[in-house]
Amino acid sequence: MKIFITGTSGYIGGMLADRFDENPEVEKIIALDMKAPSNLAIRLLSSNRIAFVQHNLGDPGWEEKVLAEGRPDLVIHCAYVIREGYGKKRAWQIKSNVTAAERVFDFVSKNKIPRLIHFSTVASYGALPENSTNYKFKESDSFREEKYLYGVDKKIIEEKLKAAFYAFSATQVLVFRPCAITGPRGQFAFKRFGLLRAMKFGLPVVPVTGPDSARQFVHEDDIWDAVRFMAGGGASSKYEIFNIAPADFFLLKDMAKEIGKLSIRVPMRLGKLCFGALWHLSRGRIPTVPAGINSYTYPIIVDGSKITNYGFKYQYTGREALKADRGYYSRFVDK
Predict the structure, then answer these.
(1) What would the 3-class secondary structure string for 238-282 be?
(2) Is the pLDDT of residue 42 over 90?
(3) Which family is this protein grouped under (predicted)?
(4) What's the pTM?
């Protein structure tokens, strides 16, 4: 089997390339990213079964380089610039995300790739005031995000994906909508700055801007297992969407206790002001985009049980994912 994975210098794409390289049934992995792999991506740099292509998916030319290694049997599209661009960077981000996805979908269609796994997000359901931890979003629920560009762009990309493949394509399309992914690789190897890292390793206290402020976490090993499960034919239908999330979640005040921090209630207006000030003063280097206060305040809790109906089982709870002391990468990272 030949696999083409996008975004392999990133957290999830790199992990998938790493783990698939262990599988003797995988003949070749074509790994693509706009950035060269870091020293964390040991197999990307040394494996003779991995061919790395450095290219922006939004630009033409990568298709020929990928096909030079042979037509893939499976495409896994993980590449995405998550951090919202500041000022003129927005145009570049659209090219790197939306245009890139269109080119990937076109590549899959033209070359009649048998299977596509596309990574989307639960953020597109929309962080709105009417949300409650009493309701878990299902795959059939509509996307409602209109402000937070991560959720907006992922919504647009899913619409384009459905238009390209839903009705008549021979390609099996599997859409993954994970909640926040974490684990030992994410917390101790990549150390990417974000909400979890700020709370766990930065802020002395955890600010809470809403009574239902909550987070849901899935372990990185469960993401790998879900991809491996579906890559091996875990679903038979042509177009399926899966929320990827264990059953448990944290209210932020309880998450603070879990990581040994105090929590403090902060008015949302003050939180929004702080988000905006940090965003503009740092010119986007601190990823507190103003619209992000909604996703910080209003919960998006999803029902991730659909995939279990196909025989998949989560190994870890959200609490175990947050703790990040168990899993494949726990033996390789310095804590």
Answers:
(1) CEEEEEECCCCCEEHHHHHHHCCCEEEECCHHHHHHHHHHHHHHC
(2) no
(3) Belongs to the NAD(P)-dependent epimerase/dehydratase family.
(4) 0.94
The CATH number given to whatever domain includes residue 310 is: 3.40.50.720
Residue 35 in any domain: the answer is yes
pLDDT at 158 over 80: yes
User: Is residue 266 one of the residues assigned to a domain?
Assistant: no
Amino acid (one-letter) located at 47: S
pLDDT tens readout for residues 231-253: 999 888 999 999 999 999 999 99
Position 74 in a domain: yes
Q: How many domains does the chain have?
A: 1
CA distance 294 to 290: 9
Q: Is the dihedral of CA 134, 140, 144, 149 positive or negative?
A: positive
What would the two tokens of residue 251 be? 């209210």
Q: What is the pLDDT of residues 250-303, one digit of tens each?
A: 999 999 999 999 999 999 889 888 888 877 887 877 777 888 899 999 999 999
pLDDT of residue 36: 87
Strands (E), 56-215: 74-77, 115-119, 172-178, 180-182, 205-208, 214-215
What value does the mean pLDDT take over residues 195-202? 74
Domain that holds residue 310: 2-190+216-247+301-322
Helix (H) or strand (E) holding 7, with range, is none
Half-sphere exposure of 84 (CA within 13 A, CB side): 22
Is-contact 238 173, C-beta < 8 A? yes
